[in-house]
UniProtKB/TrEMBL annotation, chain A:
<protein>
    <recommendedName>
        <fullName>pyruvate dehydrogenase (acetyl-transferring)</fullName>
        <ecNumber>1.2.4.1</ecNumber>
    </recommendedName>
</protein>
<dbReference type="GO" id="GO:0046872">
    <property type="term" value="F:metal ion binding"/>
</dbReference>
<dbReference type="InterPro" id="IPR009014">
    <property type="entry name" value="Transketo_C/PFOR_II"/>
</dbReference>
<dbReference type="Pfam" id="PF02780">
    <property type="entry name" value="Transketolase_C"/>
</dbReference>
<keyword id="KW-0630">Potassium</keyword>
<keyword id="KW-0150">Chloroplast</keyword>
<keyword id="KW-0560">Oxidoreductase</keyword>
<dbReference type="GO" id="GO:0004739">
    <property type="term" value="F:pyruvate dehydrogenase (acetyl-transferring) activity"/>
</dbReference>
<dbReference type="InterPro" id="IPR033248">
    <property type="entry name" value="Transketolase_C"/>
</dbReference>
From TrEMBL, chain B:
<keyword id="KW-0670">Pyruvate</keyword>
<dbReference type="GO" id="GO:0006086">
    <property type="term" value="P:pyruvate decarboxylation to acetyl-CoA"/>
</dbReference>
<protein>
    <recommendedName>
        <fullName>Pyruvate dehydrogenase E1 component subunit alpha</fullName>
        <ecNumber>1.2.4.1</ecNumber>
    </recommendedName>
</protein>
<feature type="domain" description="Dehydrogenase E1 component">
    <location>
        <begin position="84"/>
        <end position="384"/>
    </location>
</feature>
<keyword id="KW-0175">Coiled coil</keyword>
<comment type="subunit">
    <text>Tetramer of 2 alpha and 2 beta subunits.</text>
</comment>
<dbReference type="InterPro" id="IPR050642">
    <property type="entry name" value="PDH_E1_Alpha_Subunit"/>
</dbReference>
<dbReference type="Pfam" id="PF00676">
    <property type="entry name" value="E1_dh"/>
</dbReference>
<keyword id="KW-0560">Oxidoreductase</keyword>
């Protein structure tokens, strides 16, 4: 089930996405790292709302546009349980650790502290200090240790406290994680999952706001996925752990408190597939992670203006799901990529190249790519807002492409 | 599970008060993972500590021992050691010949002169123990049990190589023999070795299996200035991992003398700083290396944690076959050539009547034939075909993704031909 954004009735009052209004006291207790998080309060009718304050919640059904967002048939309306995204990750991880005793976690503060974003909360108590290993601060060494453990039979989940810290582990990720299966002639498998929060947060400063997907995408031998909803977070976590390939799972700092109802039964999300968020006819919008929500916010405005965008969350950053993407391009003939990655050498750049290469004949307009500015993310709130793509820009871009 | 660090081994000096010991011992069932060190009550005078360090060079210990059996090895063991060192030396000499004949390419780093370290350690290990090495890994692979044929074929880039020709000289891997590589960047393998040791501890403590496998990590003096080395010393000591860090200090990192690049050149001293014994041993003497290795391996198997062993050794050839080796002093080379480990062992075996010239000559001939046969085998083996290009990139080839036609790219028939678009 995809997380949907209600409050469509408020769309007319909310043509620009003012993220500052959505700030609420953080649910998780992070002492020194005080961040303002987006708190999602579930409303009584079990609908999903993003960043709702009482001002924005839906109260005007006569203005509700039913097809503003995609709603998959709600098969789990009666069963299923509601939880936040970080809890979904934890649930997926815990289920896999129960299922296979070789699955273990290593990283900074994952054990006694419960994880800096609480993804591993309670796991050390349940599984012990060796299975949920608190490492010293040595990313290169403990990532390599995870790789060595994977080569000799374990299935480690390595957490980068912030994805940016994994730059210190680049040697191990590139040379060992990606390459050893090949250079050993297929003798050793490296079934690691490397995960952690990344992306631009709330005034976290340049170094804590990095998007490493662009740096890792060229490494042969690894897969990269990005989760964006509690449903796909749990599904991708489980699939990544079960995969024999090394998988890098990108989470986003601002999405940990998204709430959604997910099925009770065991499920995984295919690592190589993209997710159809909203079918449409006029234009294909490809996005991933947090930008999905900016796109959906813009989609409400666009629908009111008479456009019918098809929104796809690509989810698999490496490799791209060219089937889902291709089918969409063949239908709409116009592509807009919206990402949080940097402009230069980002995921969008690769995706643009892939689409041009494979589907050039189907395009009525050049592929447009909206990415973050090529600047180190500034601390000041206003500047930070301008580095990242905002819904208004998305609306303008769609209007431009659909002329 | 941490037990209190106790220095009761003969590796350390007999002095009681300077030991880095902990006042209390945690109960064995404690699951506490971490250091239980507390600072000693008496403040040690730095110079005092240096003179009466708990860690001593092994030569002294070996002399102090009054064993009932004056010999350090039996005849069988002696011949095994001799054969292994001869194999290492002959193989590497053959590599040099083959390289200059254009049969192998790229960077080839030869181990001549350092055989005592490889043989001294690896011949004590079982098949399930792991070895991690660097780019100077041919002889470690051979000592661990990888066949000369497989290593030579790998060097020739043939399909029958231990890594199907995909790794080359610097990436000798063998799952069967638990040879975990072969790494091109220095220091890269040390975290991998730490991980293998972690698995051993995990198997014992979480999976409740009977596992006392140890891991031996080999690396050079240059690596000891690299961060990964220190990070792993810390973690290995912290978690009491069954690992032995073996420094093959041959005094030169390509053209950089160890003394020019290291503030404190005595590498063995860095062990105690992290809470593990540090030992210095004469790496040109296989018997001394073997004695130290026995202690270190036994310690690791008992769950007492890691050891840092610095082996003073020397490489008779240049850093690699591309290195003209002009910087090293001829006198220094001559000094170490006189301490050739193979000559030393031969002398020991003959003087102590463990073997005679004839037996040793037989071994040398046998190895010569083996290496010749390995070359013939490698020559006759086929080169990898195009179909091998895309295999082994992913353990699960679905990782190449879904193509525009809806099929997984690995399902494309051209994938197995190696010509598919990925």
């Amino acid at each position: 089930m995809s997380a949907i954004i209600h409050g469509a009735g408020a769309a007319t009052a909310l043509t620009t996405f003012n993220s500052k209004k959505l700030v609420a006291p953080c649910r998780t207790n992070l002492p020194a790292r005080s961040k303002r998080c987006i708190v999602v309060a579930g409303s009584d009718d079990a609908s999903k709302s993003f960043g709702s304050s009482s001002v924005l919640s839906v109260r005007r059904p006569q203005k509700l546009i039913a097809n503003a967002v995609a709603t998959k048939t709600d098969t789990s309306a009666t069963t299923g349980h509601e939880l936040l995204l970080f809890e979904a990750l934890q649930e997926g991880l815990e289920e896999e650790m129960d299922r296979d005793p070789h699955v273990c976690v290593m990283g900074e503060d994952v054990g006694h502290y419960g994880g800096s974003y609480k993804v591993t909360k309670g796991l050390a108590d349940k599984f012990g200090d060796l299975r949920v290993l608190d490492t010293p601060i040595c990313e290169n060494a403990f990532t390599g240790m995870g790789i060595g453990a994977a080569m000799t039979g374990l299935r480690p989940v390595i957490e980068g406290m912030n994805m940016g810290f994994l730059l210190l582990a680049f040697n191990q990720i590139s040379n060992n994680c990606g390459m050893l299966h090949y250079t050993s002639g297929g003798q050793f498998t490296i079934p690691v999952v490397i995960r952690g929060p990344g992306g631009v947060g709330r005034q976290l400063g340049a170094e804590h706001s990095q998007r490493l997907e662009s740096y890792f995408q060229s490494i042969p031998g690894i897969q990269m996925v990005a989760c964006s909803t509690p449903y796909n977070a749990k599904g991708l976590m489980k699939a990544a752990i079960r995969s024999e390939n090394p998988v890098i799972l990108f989470e986003h700092v601002l999405l940990y408190n998204l709430k959604e109802k997910i099925p009770d039964d065991d499920y995984i999300c295919n690592l190589e597939e993209a997710e159809m968020v909203r079918p449409g006819e006029h234009i294909t919008i490809l996005t991933y992670s947090r930008m999905r929500y900016h796109v959906m916010q813009a989609a409400k405005t666009l629908v009111n203006k008479g456009y019918d965008p098809e929104v796809i969350d690509i989810r698999s950053l490496k490799p791209f799901d060219l089937y889902t993407i291709g089918n969409s391009v063949k239908k709409t003939h116009r592509v807009l990529i919206v990402e949080e990655c940097m402009r230069t050498g980002g995921i969008g750049a690769s995706l643009t190249a892939a689409i041009n290469e494979n589907f050039h004949d189907y395009l009525d307009a050049p592929v447009m790519c909206l990415s973050s500015q090529d600047v180190p993310t500034p601390y000041a709130g206003t500047l930070e807002e301008w580095t990242v793509v905002q819904p208004a820009q998305i609306v303008t871009a769609v209007e431009q492409l659909c002329q | 599970m941490a037990t209190a660090f106790s220095a009761t081994l003969p590796l350390h000096g007999s002095s009681q008060e300077n030991r880095l010991c902990f006042p209390t011992r945690l109960p064995p069932s404690s699951s506490f993972l971490g250091s239980t060190r507390s600072l000693p009550v008496r403040r040690l005078n730095h110079a005092h500590a240096a003179r009466r360090s708990p860690v001593v060079a092994v030569q002294e210990i070996v002399k102090e021992k009054k064993p009932t059996n004056p010999l350090l090895i039996t005849k069988e063991e002696g011949l095994v050691l001799y054969e292994d060192m001869i194999l290492g030396r002959s193989f590497e000499d053959m590599c040099a010949q083959m390289y200059y004949r254009g049969k192998m390419f790229g960077f080839v780093h030869l181990y001549n002169g350092q055989e005592a370290v490889s043989t001294g350690f690896i011949k004590l290990l079982t098949k399930s123990d792991s070895v991690v090495s660097t780019y100077r890994d041919h002889v470690h692979a051979l000592s661990k049990g990888v066949s000369a044929r497989a290593v030579m074929s790998e060097l020739f880039g043939k399909v029958t190589g231990c890594c199907r020709g995909q790794g080359g000289s610097m990436h000798m891997f063998s799952k069967e023999h638990n040879m975990l590589g072969g790494f091109a960047f220095i220091g890269e393998g040390i975290p991998v070795a730490t991980g293998a040791a972690f698995t051993s501890k995990y198997k014992r403590e979480v999976l409740k299996q009977d596992c006392d496998d140890v891991t031996v990590a080999f690396f050079g003096d240059g690596t000891c200035n690299n961060g990964q080395f220190y990070e792993c010393l810390n973690m290995a000591a912290l978690y009491k991992l069954p690992i032995i860090f073996v420094v093959e200090n041959n005094l030169w990192a390509i053209g950089m003398s160890h003394l020019r690049s290291t503030s404190d050149p005595e590498i063995w001293k860095k062990g105690p700083a992290f809470g593990m014994p540090g030992v210095h041993v004469d790496g040109m003497d296989v018997l001394k290396v073997r004695e130290v290795a026995k202690e270190a391996v036994t310690r690791a198997r008992r769950g007492e944690g890691p050891t840092l062993v610095e082996c003073e050794t020397y490489r008779f050839r240049g850093h690699s076959l591309a290195d003209p080796d002009e910087l090293r002093d001829a006198a220094e080379k001559a000094k170490y050539a006189a301490r050739d480990p193979i000559t030393a062992l031969k002398k020991y075996l003959i003087e102590n009547k463990l073997a005679n010239e004839g037996e040793l000559k037989t071994i040398e001939k046998k190895i010569d034939d083996l290496v010749e046969e390995a070359v013939e085998f490698a020559d006759a083996s086929p080169q990898p075909g195009r179909s091998q290009l895309l295999e082994n990139v992913f353990a699960d080839p679905k990782g190449f993704g879904i193509g525009p036609d809806g099929r997984y790219r690995c399902e494309d028939p051209k994938f197995t031909e190696g010509t598919a678009q990925v």
